[in-house]
Amino acid sequence: MTYTRLPSRNLDKTAGLLRPACVLPDRVTLDNPALDVMTDFRRMTAFIATPGDSITQAEERMHRRKVKLLFVMDGEDRVAGLITNTDIYGEKPLQIVQSRGIRRDEIVVADIMTPVDRLEAVDYDDLAHARVGHVLETLKARGRQHALVIEQTGSRQMVRGLLSLTQLCKQLGVVVETTEIAHTFTEIEQQLAHA
């Protein structure tokens, strides 16, 4: 076979760069497919921290990326845990400062993250056959702001996606005033009942 040169042209000054995008519908109902509210890491980059990062570094990374959660990855590219803005701004850092007699900027991600053995996940295949209402009930039953979605890739379990209560509320068109998780679900149910 003979190969010929592909045609080429100059890049124009308005050229942009395509990046992975997980485009979720602006609005959903409880009956929409559950995948409509999942951040899919096959289409969007997950943001990470390492166990040795300072909480200041994690805080800056979250702020810069406009996210509230980072995956903590170990040196062998395995999930070591999660760190959320609740971990950073909650009681954990204060307790560590008091108990260890250190400054806040000396606290590292490993000190306040939720370790991998305490993380629960939903199987992607189950989510693929579920509805948004199932997602809401799952988060409510676990009293969580987030749920991981996993799938089996060969012999390895991989985090495929993320379900976020904040994202879910935004797509449902529900405004939540409180950060306390139990009150959050009560507010969601009240607003959906009146919708």
Which key phrases capture this entry?
CBS-domain; four-stranded mixed sheet; 19% strand; alpha/beta; 195 residues
Write up this protein.
With 195 residues, the protein is α/β, with parallel strands linked by helices. The chain has one domain (34-194): CBS-domain. Helices cover 35% and strands 19% of the residues. It contains 8 helices and 8 strands, in the order E-E-H-E-E-H-H-H-E-E-H-H-E-E-H-H. It has helices at 55-65, 85-89, 91-100, 109-112, 124-128, 132-142, 165-172, 181-194; strands at 38-40, 48-49, 69-73, 79-84, 114-115, 121-123, 146-153, 156-164. The strands form 2 sheets. It has a 4-stranded mixed β-sheet with strand order 1-8-7-6. The chain has a 4-stranded mixed β-sheet with strand order 2-3-4-5. A hairpin with a 2-residue loop joins strand 7 (146-153) and strand 8 (156-164). It is globular and about 70 Å long. The N and C termini lie far apart (64 Å). The relative contact order is 0.16. The model has no long low-confidence stretch (mean pLDDT 88).
How far the N terminus sits from the C terminus, by CA atoms, comes to: 64 Å
Strand order in space, largest sheet: 1-8-7-6
Major β-sheet annotation: 4 strands, mixed
Shape: globular
Task: Kindly state the percentage of residues in helix.
Answer: 25-40%
Question: Rg, please?
Answer: 20 Å
Find the CATH topology: CBS-domain
- SSE pattern: EEHEEHHHEEHHEEHH
Task: Indicate the proportion of strand residues.
Answer: 15-25%
**Count of DSSP helices?**
8
> Average pLDDT, to the nearest integer?
88
CATH superfamily: CBS-domain
Counting structural domains, the number is: 1
* Text of the CATH class: Alpha Beta
